[in-house]
Amino acid sequence: MRSRSSTLAGVTVLFTLLALLLPATASATAATAAAPGPPPVLTPHPREMSRIGADVHVPARVRLVVADGVDRPTRELVTSVLRHAGASRIQDGPGPKLTVTVGRITDTRVVRALRAAGGRVPGELPAEGYALAAGHGSVALAGADSDGTYYAAQTLRQLVSGHRTIASVSVADHPLMPLRGVIEGFYGSPWTHAERMDQLAFYGDVKMNTYIYAPKDDPYHREKWREPYPAAKLAELGELVRQATDHHVRFTFAVSPGNSICYSDPADIAALEAKLDAVYDLGVRSFSMPLDDISYTRWNCEADRATYGDPSSQAAAEAQSDLLNAVQKEFLDERADTRPLQMVPTEYGDVTDTAYKRVLRERLDARVEVMWTGTDVVPPHITVADAERVAAVWGRKVFVWDNYPVNDYGQAEGRLLLAPYDAREPGLHRQLSGLVLNPMNQAAASKVALFGGADFAWNDTGYDATRTWEAAARYLAGDGPGAHADRTAATVRSLLAFFDTQHLAPTFGAEPWQSQAPELAARLDRFRTAWEAGHERTALRSLRPYARLLATAPERIRAGVADPGFVADSAPWLDALSLWGSAFERTLDALGARLDGHDAEAARWFAEAAADAKLAGGIRTIPGETRPEGPVRIADGVLDTFIAEAAEAA
């Protein structure tokens, strides 16, 4: 043993002397050559991404080369990213040690820059695709088109891994679904103008390209569809169109005349075209006509009975196809730069072939996009087989209107729906023309699920619900250059714990499609198992940190979340969680006191827990914000059950 120790000591001394004799440059080279870490987590998840080498340093001066075809929003985004990364002077002439080149993949200068940075030049880059490389002292962003170049810039934003640092990677990427986004199609209080402006910027961040304006409780969208928008409202719509354009989002204007239209009345057709024309003049080029949630067992005028016969689903389909075809051929085809009409059929939530669907399948213009909510209004899952069947029924790929995380129905009363976007099968992109999510009345809180929808629609084959859920928490926490890592991590932990208490995703039936508080439930199951095995103190010691996390999460979220809208949307639930978290801690205190034989103290802690739980149960949703209103729910069926059972056992 003594001999081996002596040998090891000699080797150590030898390596120490060699290290002292090596020049400083050799040490620097070794550091540079060190294996880089794993690629960063990006949302949406790229189809191809690999590490090139050591991260790229961002000096104070950066050269920005902008090729032809790069629009103002993309140029401004790249400039903003570089400034956040630490560049104080951005110039177009030679001199700086870092050059960033931005342009189209068809530009030879951009291709050379991509290769020089260590990137791969794709043989074919589909629409909205891009290639990006950061390495060897340069960065290159190459888009297949204007959208692709903008998306490359959004990826660059996420690659800024710290002050003066850009992750060194090569990316080749494009979306798998052509239409990806959100339909504001819920009942109840519509979003405010400020919320919509914020949402459109968010959609650009996550590479969504579609926003459908269809709020059910906007009277000019549905009940007063014949009437023109007031000037002030029309001005707001124009601002939204410009905001959408700046973030590479297609603003789709929807009008829903089905409750009162007379299909055979030329005056109604003229009123409809006038409504569409007014927003076309604002820059809208994409239009939708939802005919959902209406009756097709009655006509709105006698002229329709004379034209189409007695009311029936088949007659309704004939009238609807005539209307939709007229809008496509006589309005959209006559105007420049328009996109195919979108529609929501009256039968929108199943895969059953019917007379109604058969008529639309045979008569409807093949270009019209047909929307579908899945196998139910709120489907527990959507499979590739479901999509194949419905494509056969409608005679075309369908455009999914996914009713998640919308919370405007009875089973969602008192809930924020903050579970990850899930139970949609990889491979759906082969059968769908697109995917939009119907969000909650709470716009900012909807971002949690919308993050997942954006990721899935872009790259469903590489989708990971948990990864994207955690990325959504980091986004809300303001993770990025300048953020304090420890504070951000604590905020993310608090957000994920809060999301877990709002994990239940209901359907229109009795069974939810995502369970409530699975993380908390698993911890409570482990607690019960340990307790019943006689390891009571170990059980208490293991559960206390999570109880403390829940109790302090509201304060941490209010202080640490970068999105004030999220805090405002969540206010009643955060108030309730603070009380439920306190009740949780008091219950554990009571169990500990009872173990120690302090029955009076245990009774006092149980009483305090019950009082906190009662106060929490009295907190209600924000009046007028959500339909339906009611008491807010926090990990219901999980945390309240544990607290009640613990007190009863006493």
TrEMBL record:
Would you tell me the protein name for this molecule? Beta-N-acetylglucosaminidase domain-containing protein
Start and end residues of each GH84 domain: 178-461
What Pfam families does its record include?
Glyco_hydro_20b, NAGidase
For the keyword Hydrolase, the answer is: yes
What are the boundaries of the signal sequence? 1-30
**Family, as annotated:** Belongs to the glycosyl hydrolase 84 family.
**What is the superkingdom listed in this entry's lineage?**
Bacteria
Which keywords, in A-to-Z order, does the entry hold? Glycosidase, Hydrolase, Signal
Q: Which Gene3D superfamilies does this chain map to? A: Chitobiase/beta-hexosaminidase domain 2-like, Glycosidases, Hyaluronidase post-catalytic domain-like
